[in-house]
Amino acid sequence: MARSIKKGPYVDPKLQKKVEKINDGGKKQVIKTWSRRSMITPDFVGHTFAVHNGNKFIPVFVY
């Protein structure tokens, strides 16, 4: 079921901090996260996330 439009997108604050830190540093690295409920924002474009599926981390590249 999709999230209600009036609520807006949800991004885990820890995940947002990790992305901002990497954007400021200018280096590329895989970002490990357990937050599967976060929506992809324009800040995430160009990053690779290792998303935990309950068993192992699956790499996801955001175009």
From TrEMBL:
The keyword rRNA-binding applies. GO terms for molecular function: rRNA binding; structural constituent of ribosome. The keyword RNA-binding applies. This is 30S ribosomal protein S19. One of its GO terms (biological process) is translation. Pfam families: Ribosomal_S19. It comes from marine metagenome. Belongs to the universal ribosomal protein uS19 family. One of its GO terms (cellular component) is small ribosomal subunit. SUPFAM superfamilies: Ribosomal protein S19. Keywords: Ribonucleoprotein, Ribosomal protein, RNA-binding, rRNA-binding. Gene3D superfamilies: 30s Ribosomal Protein S19, Chain A. NCBIfam families: rpsS_bact.
